[in-house]
Design a protein that fits this description.
Blueprint (H helix, E strand, L loop, with lengths): L1 H15 L2 E4 L2 E4 L3 H6 L3 H13 L2 H17 L5 H13 L2 H12 L4 H8 L16 H26 L3 H9 L4 H12 L1 H17 L2 H7 L11 H11 L3 H31 L1
Antiparallel strand pairs: 1-2
Amino acid sequence: MLAVVFVYPLVYVIKYSFYGGSIGNLTFVGFSNYVNIIHDSVFLIALKNNLRLLVTAPITVTLAIAISLILYEGIKGWRWYRIIVFVPYIIPGTVVGLSFSYLLQQSGILNSVLILLHMPALALDWLGSTSLSILSVGGLLIWSQLGFAVIALTAALLSLPQEVNEAATVDGATRWQKQRFVIIPQLKNTIQFLLVLQVINALAWVFPYVFTLTRGGPGNSSMVMDLFIWQYGFSLGSIGYASTAAVYLLALSAVFIYLYSRVRRNEDES
């Protein structure tokens, strides 16, 4: 099954990256696509934006740790709060993108509320500004992915042995000291896994948000690699060029997965 759904398509993506033209009219071009694409200004913008979106990974995980610790304390209604936090994660990306497009437009809900609150200086052009559009995408990514991280961390917290916490309480540890030196260190593996997962999301799973929110604009300022691949592969029909971009994206993701594997291996050996 892995060979059918992963290996076979991957082999063909790599194969097509050495060809130019469209399906049915392919011409072997060798490494020309690989050379040309790194001089493509739009591709470089997309690569830069994906790297900028990586900052959402630690922000998402940090917020998730804070929220999960609050839920772990057993506040009244914590099960309902956990469900509410998780809901954005199960909403389809296109629905989220369309909803936020109405929210963040210059004349949208957010700016209308800010003006009503007599804060017009904060009513910015969130989607039409070349400097703010990718930040809006990053905020949307954090909002949509936060729920999964909270659920994963809360589940990990509920599985921790209570004896350690009780021993820390007997020793006179404060609430902050227990969280900082007892609870959070036991979540290390879960936190590392979530960081890698959020990095992959920032690299390769932002297409529905960007496509529905900004379409890569204005002026390619919010272009990302998976939208770049879609434009060349499906809109323009240049399957070879799109495949080359996909190989670069796969290589970039593989680097982070490799680094994570090395960290885990070193920890297991120590």
